[in-house]
């Protein structure tokens, strides 16, 4: 009788260990997927930061050119007055 109880307890332990291992494998797979997503998002963020930097530089150059043209118009207007 004691052997039957012991065998039953080992079976229960084995079942619980198998569930824990299964859960661990699922969590490891999810972790790999989340790491992949993080890497992808970091790459996307980097690309957007680069694009934003380019856009800001382009905007700065346009602003300088407009300011230069406005100064030329002002100087022209002052010289012809």
Describe the structure.
By secondary structure, the chain is mainly alpha-helical. The chain has a domain of 31 residues. The chain contains one helix and no strands. The longest helix is centred in the middle third of the chain and has 78 residues. The chain is rod-shaped, with a radius of gyration of 35 Å.
Q: Helices, strands, pairings?
A:
Elements: H1 2-79
Summarize the structure.
The chain is mainly α and 81 residues long.
Helix/strand structural class: mainly alpha
Q: Largest beta sheet, briefly?
A: none
- Mean pLDDT comes to 95
Low-confidence regions: none
**Approximately how much beta-strand content do the residues carry?**
under 5%
Our count of helices gives: 1
User: Span from first to last CA?
Assistant: 117 Å
C-alpha Rg (nearest Å): 35 Å
Percent range for helical residues? over 70%
Per DSSP E runs of 2 or more residues, the count of β-strands stands at: 0
Task: Write the H/E string, N to C.
Answer: H
Please tell me what the overall shape is. Answer: rod-shaped
Could you name the key traits of this structure?
mainly alpha, 81 residues, rod-shaped, 0% strand
């Amino acid at each position: 009788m004691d052997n039957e109880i012991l065998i039953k307890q080992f079976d229960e332990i084995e079942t619980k260990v198998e569930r824990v291992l299964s859960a661990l494998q699922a969590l490891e797979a999810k972790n790999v997927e989340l790491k992949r997503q993080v890497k992808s998002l970091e790459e996307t963020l980097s690309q957007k930061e680069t694009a934003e930097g380019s856009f800001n530089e382009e905007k700065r150059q346009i602003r300088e050119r407009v300011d230069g043209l406005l100064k030329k118009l002002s100087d022209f207007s002052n010289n012809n007055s």
